[in-house]
Design a protein that fits this description.
Number of strands: 14
Distance between the termini: 26 Å
Radius of gyration: 25 Å
Largest sheet: 5 strands, antiparallel
Number of domains: 2
Number of helices: 7
């Protein structure tokens, strides 16, 4: 989705103020009762609110902007706003472009962090779930009118390109051991199988993501190194779950260079479920 799942950009423009007067210049006597008309700039469009829910289709969730209206969170929806922020689009006193690296980096950093705080649990727990961050910014028209917000949403993947429908809030769900399993990541097969697909563990599955192999930020180490890095950790994680620690299966899904460049600097360990 945009950041592997989704990505977005933003535009901030300053609203202008126009005024017209009914008199002459300072050296010219005007009428006894001059009238001055001043037209204030239109108010910026109303910013979205944290906690709002939206019935987004997958195609909209991977887009940079959306004009879909919110619905009650008790109704069927696919995204929930976890945070609203203000875009910082000024560099050295100048506004940067809507698709600038500066704006994209700000939102792409802020929204995943906001998601962790909202859903609870740990970064590892989030990476082993199907909950993902998506973000939106104003349209060009809204930005021209003075909008300068960005919106961070949480979505729940049901498959490769499908969003799960929700009728309850995702706030704090990964803090709750009794409910977080319903959001966990499972697979239809081993991660190296041709028919492998990530699905919710509440769906039919045969494997489960059980641990995360974290790498230091920086240049991609190369496939040979990232592939070798998870062997011991994943084998040990699978052995801990196995009924027989001497006979068991395990799998490891390491980050590709493309995924690394998009911010996924970690791999996942898998085991039969």
């Amino acid at each position: 989705m945009r950041r592997s799942l989704l990505g977005s950009v933003a535009l901030v423009l300053v609203a202008t103020l126009t005024a017209c007067g009914g008199g002459g210049d300072d050296n010219t006597e005007g009428p006894k009762n001059p009238s001055t008309t001043q037209t204030a700039a239109a108010e910026p469009p109303t910013a979205p609110k944290a906690g709002a829910c939206y019935p987004l289709p997958f195609e909209t969730a991977v887009a940079p902007t959306t004009e879909i209206e919110p619905v009650k969170c008790s109704a069927r929806h696919t995204s929930e706003t976890v945070a609203i922020g203000t875009i910082d689009a000024v560099v050295d006193g100048h506004l940067v472009a809507v698709d600038s690296d500066r704006v994209q980096a700000q939102v792409a950093t802020a929204c995943p962090q906001a998601l962790i705080k909202y859903v609870g649990g740990s970064r590892e727990r989030l990476r082993l779930s199907m909950i993902r961050p998506v973000w939106f910014t104003p349209t060009v028209k809204e930005s021209d009118a003075g909008a300068e917000w960005y919106r961070c949403d949480a979505v729940l993947l049901a498959g490769t390109s499908t969003l799960a429908e929700l009728t309850t809030s995702l706030k704090g769900v990964l803090d709750q051991s009794k409910v977080r399993d319903r959001y966990a990541m499972c697979g239809t097969a081993a991660p190296d199988a041709k028919n492998f697909e990530r699905v919710l563990c509440s769906a039919k599955h045969t494997w489960r993501a059980i641990d995360v192999v974290v790498f230091d930020e920086g240049k991609y180490p190369g496939e040979k190194k990232v592939r070798a890095a998870g062997r011991t950790q994943c084998e040990d994680a699978a052995a801990d779950r196995a009924e027989d620690p001497l006979v068991f299966e395990w799998g490891y899904e390491w980050p590709t260079r493309e995924q690394w460049d998009m911010g996924q600097m970690f791999g996942r360990c898998w085991a039969p479920d």
